[in-house]
TrEMBL record:
InterPro entries noted in UniProt: UspA
Organism encoding this protein: Sodalis praecaptivus
Protein's name in the database: Universal stress protein E
Family: Belongs to the universal stress protein A family.
Localization in the cell: Cytoplasm
Main location, first listed in the record: cytoplasm
Transmembrane segments: none
Domain UspA residue range list: 4-146, 175-300
């Protein structure tokens, strides 16, 4: 049974091409399932129009929703005509990320797909504030789709944490690898690679402790990470050639290896911390994301609870 069966596609309101919708169709054609094309819209000028009665403002909002629904239907025309089942839904909401997450919660969507814009000069992916909110707060996996074709023979690169410093790392590593292997097997038999990064010798330690031997320290740290990677790959029967343990910061190692492998997607765990703790705990993940040039699939731990709550309104009745 395929894992992803109830897909939510966040429609980009500013362009006719919809890479996220294209990726969703690609998935359901191989996995089966259902697609919902979803767009939250809001125009503050409609709320400021004091010359109109509440009923007139409601009618104007409905008119805008109908127009955007017709526009999305046209974007989906090719897929609909070829037999792909796509539900189209437009809601009036002034905070797009909240509307998207509430839709996920209300209808148990198991995968959210959204387009990530590409920076023309550097080829890196640019994330909007809405993207960051979704990556941090959406309870289901979030697939950020780059607006470029999938590379020929593109691989999946799974970023795992081999430090073992926190109790959630091992279960999350297993969840990331399981999800990636299952998707690769069900969709396109792509290669799945694992990558872990280990830190270099802290300079201050080498300075403050004259007898400290950086090479011994580096060997010990690398040995720990290699052993952890071996345990992880053996659990899934992966060949050593598909695993990589590299020295350096994750935000440098992971994007560099993804580019070297010509990866189509990087799969990463997102702890989803918000508020004060996010500046520290979520920083590494976000730095990695900020340097990627390919698709990103962010997966939360099993015990993650979204800070966004479901508010039943007209759009969910």
């Amino acid at each position: 049974m395929a894992k992803y069966q109830n897909l939510l596609v966040a429609i980009d309101p500013d362009q006719d091409d919809q890479p996220a919708l294209r990726r969703a169709v690609y998935l359901v054609q191989r996995l089966g399932g259902h697609i919902k094309a979803f767009l939250p819209i809001y125009d503050f000028s409609y709320e400021m129009t004091t010359l109109l009665s509440p009923d007139e403002r409601t009618a104007m909002r409905r008119g805008v929703i109908e127009q955007r629904t017709a526009w999305i239907t046209e974007q989906c025309r090719h897929y609909l005509d070829s037999g792909v089942q796509i539900e189209i839904k437009v809601v009036w909401h002034n905070r797009p990320f909240e509307a998207i997450i509430q839709e996920v919660l209300a209808f148990d969507h198991d995968l959210l797909l959204k387009m990530a814009h590409q920076h023309d000069r550097f080829e890196s992916v640019i994330f909007t504030p809405t993207d960051w909110h979704l990556l941090r707060k959406c309870p289901c996996p979030v697939w950020m789709v780059k607006d470029q074709p999938w590379p020929e023979g593109g691989k999946a690169l799974v970023a795992v944490n081999l430090s073992g410093e926190e109790p959630y790392h091992d279960p999350l590593n297993i969840k990331l690898v399981e999800a990636s292997l299952a998707l690769a097997k069900q969709v396109n038999q792509t290669e799945v690679h694992l990558v872990g990064a280990y830190p270099v010798t802290p300079i201050n330690i080498a300075i403050e402790l004259p007898d400290f031997d950086p090479s011994v320290y580096n060997d010990a740290i690398r040995g720990q990470h290699l052993l952890a990677m071996k345990t992880l790959r053996q659990k899934f029967g992966l060949d050593q050639k598909y695993t990589h343990v590299e020295k350096g910061m994750p935000e440098e190692v992971i994007p560099d290896l993804a580019e070297h492998l010509d990866a189509g997607v990087v799969v990463i765990g997102s702890i989803g911390r918000t508020g004060f703790s996010a500046a520290f705990i979520g920083n590494t993940t976000e730095l990695v994301i900020d340097h990627l040039k390919c698709d990103l699939l962010a997966i939360k731990p099993d015990d993650f609870v979204s800070p966004v709550t479901l508010e039943l309104g007209d759009q969910y009745e």
